[in-house]
Each structure stands twice: as C-alpha cells, then as structure tokens.
Amino acid sequence: MHALVSDNSEIHRASAISRIVSVLGKQISFQEKLQDVCEILPKAFQFVGEVSACIEFENQTYRSTAFSQANQVFSYAFTTPDDSKGEIRLFFPAGKNIKENGLSRDSVNQYVAEAAMLISNASSAVRLSKLLYDNSERLKELKGIRRTTEVLNKGNSLEASLMEICSFLPEAWQFPSHCAARITYGDKVFTSRQFNETDWVQKQVFETPDNQKGSIEIFYLKEFPDADEGPFLKEERDLIDNLAALISGTVSKQSLRELLTQNTERLKELRGINQTSKILKESKSISESLKLICSILPEAYQFPQDTVVRIRYENLTFTSRDFRETSHVQRQEFDTPNGHKGIIEVFYLKDFPEADEGPFLNEERNLLINLAGLIAGSASKDILNNLLYENRERLKELHVINHTSYIISQGRPIDETLQKICYIMPRSWQYSRYTAVRI
Question: What digits encode the pLDDT tens for the residues 14-53?
Fold first, then answer.
C-alpha cells in the first residue's frame, strides 16, 4: 500500500508541473501567471491535507487561497538570467509526517526546484519579448534619422526635402498606422498622407541659419496608453529633437558625422541582437545556435573585418571564421538557471584607437550583456524541453505501475492477471504504438 501511495504522490507532482507549464504559456500578465502557479503548487499534495504556497518575485508576494504559514516549510531561492530574484515556499500542516504519505524531503525539494526553474524560464521569455519590442522601436527611430539625413544630402530644395521627409516620418513612431506628421517651414506647410490634427501631438520647433522658423509635429489619430510624454516615448522625443536639428542646419558637420557614426554602429548592434534572437528561436539545439551566433556576431562590431568571436558553454567551444586570440578582448560570462556556465569573447585582430573600454564601445559592452542574457534564457528552454519530456514519460510509467498494482490487488487467477498486465504495459514505453509485450 505504501508503494501505491508513493506512486500516487509522484503522479500528483508530475501533473502539477504540467499544469504550471500550461499556465506559464498563457497570454496573460506575468503577475497573473505567478498567482495561478501559487494556486497549483499545493495541489501536488492534496492527499497530505491543507498545504499552502507563496512566491516572492521582484518585491511582490503571491499566496495560495486560504494561505497559512506552518513550521514545516520547504523553500527554494532562484535568480533569473537577468538577475531578478525570487523564492518559492511550501508550508505543510504542523504535526504531519510527510514520510507516512509516501513523500521524502528530497522529492519535495526537487518539485519546488523544478517549479522555480519553470518560472525563471518564463521570466526570461518575457524579458526577451520586451527586448525584441524595444529593439524594433529603436530600429525604426534610427532608420528615420538615416533616411532624413539621406534626403537632406541629395541637394534638392529644402521644400522638396521637407515634403519627402514628411511622407515617411510616421514610420519611425511607435504606432505608424495611426500616426501623421506635419512640418511647417516659414509660410509653407507639408503633411503626410491621411493627415488629421488631434489632441495627441508631439512638437519640436526649429530655426534655420537664415532665420526662418519651422516646426515638426507628430499626431496620433487615436488614443493610446500614456507613456513618457502623453502617449509618446522618451526616445521619440530624442528623435524629433534630432530631426529638428538636422533640418535647421544647426548641427555642425562634425556633429553630423558623429551622429551618423553612432547611428550606424547602433544599427549594427541591434541587428546583432535581432539576428541572435531569431537564431535562438529557430535553432534545434543550443549547440547549433551558438555555432550560428559565432558566425554573425563580428558584423555587429565597429571593425567587423578585424573581429573574431569565441563562445564557450559547458565543455563546448565555438569560434568564428579565422579565429585567433589577441590581447584586445571583450568578455561577458553567463549562467543558466541550472548552474551551467558560459562565456562570450570578442577579439580585435589588430590595434585600434582607445574608446570606452580599450578599443571597444560602451554600446558593444551592452550588446554582449544582452546576448549573454538571451543565450542563458535559451539554454533554459533546452532544459525545460528535456524536463517536460522526462515528466511525460514518468507519468506514463507511474500510471502503468498503479494500474498493475490495482490489477494484482484484485486477486484474480494468475493467467487472467498476467493477460491484463500484458495489455496495459506498452503504454509506459516511449513508442507505445509500436510496442508489444509477452510474459
């Protein structure tokens, strides 16, 4: 009987883990996910009595229904790849001997650790989505600056240039399909397609060297949630300020060159992040991902022709083409939630002028930090997939063990008992449809 209870307890815990995975995959807020996980955690121990759970994550606390603290507590602290801190705690009723219910402290600790890893992985996915969204917005803004600069450098009249700039400006804002632009210059007015003046406006005035006054105005054609400046982002304020400076001609040639250089470098870095994200989402394994990332990462750096990359993860090493070590190196380590370590190293093959970090830029350090976080999160995904696969296989085995125990306990003739066992046994094998048993 004790073995049967033990098997039942494993089934409860495996089923709870599967339900947690399902909740974390839902299209709801991360706060709602954590509250739902809190409700699921105690259900793995319903046969013990009233068990309570709480989760602390980023200074927020989530508790299961009818939460009650007890002296018998199991806890597990965890850190996500982006260094967010969390802890899960399970409280068992006072005076309950968990061993009498077919449990061991190790099995409960393992259950709590698995739940923590799933939460950590889900947090990484949320961070990845936000990073991709932010990068997409920055790419739109930087392209807006680049296209404006190209138009102003064509040598056309300022009127013709302003008309062309006005036509593509909405594409650089957060909600381009509901955005319109107007540029005023002297007594001339230029507008984008489907222009309509609304209350949701971002404006920047400018003055040209010949004392002509003008302004750039961006209108949203419908209401959007408040951000940094009404519905507009602080990056969009920087963008409209830069565009006004470009148009007015108050930016010196040197400042313009610096702006264009920074813009070009930032575009390369953002492409590197987006390409890395795409590789991690589409690749079949972390090994395949790291090999591809090594091949594309040099293009994200200031001097791509003289840049090589090495990524080490566990006992694996991946390098870019023509790799060799030099003294000019930028490194970033990363840890996965299950304790595996890795490092990204970028080497310049020749001397370059000093910048923010040796010959490397601050933006390149930020790029490495982001890439390390993405790789750590993707490694968590590999771990999660393996855990889910093993969990499903274990569930099948436990169901068959319980079913077999039940058949034997009925006390029927041995030949009838063995025939029934033969019938159910294939269900616990990996390829059950193609499995047959003979006793």
Answer: 788 888 888 887 888 888 989 999 999 988 886 556 789 9
The encoded tokens of residue 288 equal: 């395949």
178-181, long-range: CB < 8 A, 24+ apart: 178/220, 178/221, 178/222, 178/224, 179/218, 179/219, 179/220, 179/221, 180/218, 180/219, 180/221, 181/216, 181/217, 181/218, 181/219
pLDDT attached to residue 137: 73
Compute the distance between CA of residue 172 and CA of residue 191 in angstroms, rounded to an integer. 15
